[in-house]
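Re: weekly structure request thread

Next one in the queue (371 aa):
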Amino acid sequence: MAYLERRRFVKAAALGGIGVVGAIAAPGIVRAKETINWKMTNAYGAGSPFYAVGPGSPTDFCKKVAEMSDGRLAIQHFAAGELIPALEGFDAVRAGTVEMNAANSYFWAGKLFAAQYFTTVPFGLNFQGMNAWLYQGGGLELWHELYKPQGLIAFPMGNTGVQMTGWFRKPIESVEDFKGLKMRIPGLAGKVYAALGVEVKLLPGGEIFPALERGVIDAAEFVGPYQDRRLGLHKAAKYYYTTGWHEPSNVTELLINLKAWATLPKDLQAIVKTAAMACNVESQAWSEANNADALEDLVKNGGVKTGQLAPAIVRRLREVTEQVLEAEAAKDPATRKVHDAFMAFRAKHRSWSEISEKPYHALIATDGKEV
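Done, posted below.
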């Protein structure tokens, strides 16, 4: 009798009834994971350090997300031209053709003028200040508010830190030298240069060197010593200026389709945000670690002449920047809102940096001697 009862029990379990087999099998069903496959396009070319590969890059972001999610969210990265042209990421993500894009928000100035404030603002915020505004000063919430009607959401995913003014085929000794100059320069700084008589060109990174070499443009701004050397810009122009006026920092944008974002479970959303934040910090650290050696090499071995823009030039650039930004903010309520919020935070941040960072930099610049 006991034998027959055992057989009935096993048979019931095999048919899906309540029993030992069901109890053992259930955890296996719970553990089964579904893989979500997304695509990410990029405004920059394959192999580009920082912008495509390396620490804190978009491909590094994809790897971090895969590892943190245990493979539940797999993001396939496509460099510029591999799936779509370099500067069509905004439209591709908005249409749902791809779920993500890596670029800089100032590329979308023609669609949303205020988007530029989330990349950089001339005479704006440095890396520390930009992160403070985005993460703790309401900047990220404004970014989301601006993009929501477009069916998009964005997060910071990288930062170059302060950038170089750029490469010039001839020396820049006065404001008059800008008149008639053809220059590759994106973002709000392009508006400022245009007001000074510069013919502004917006070119993807891969097109800068041939344009500069052939004389299609007379000057170009890209990033900094390491990135610029890789493009070979020093072979086409020898005058390399600094101040960082136009881009005291530069944010890489992680652009996401809002409907796709809403389908992600909360834990995967948290992983995406955390991975993007990690890349934001790591990419800037990578830039800081590599630029000094690259600049030394450019000067010693590349025949590059470095220098700072003259104070009179910088003063005029600041005056025109204020005029341009105010004029653009007056045209559009969304830009006005972002502009006013950014400038209010800039003022607050500067009041702190004036008694923190500035005295320290002055001290180390003089090796501890009195200024």
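The longest strand covers residues 152-159. The chain has 14 helices and eleven strands.
Next request, please.
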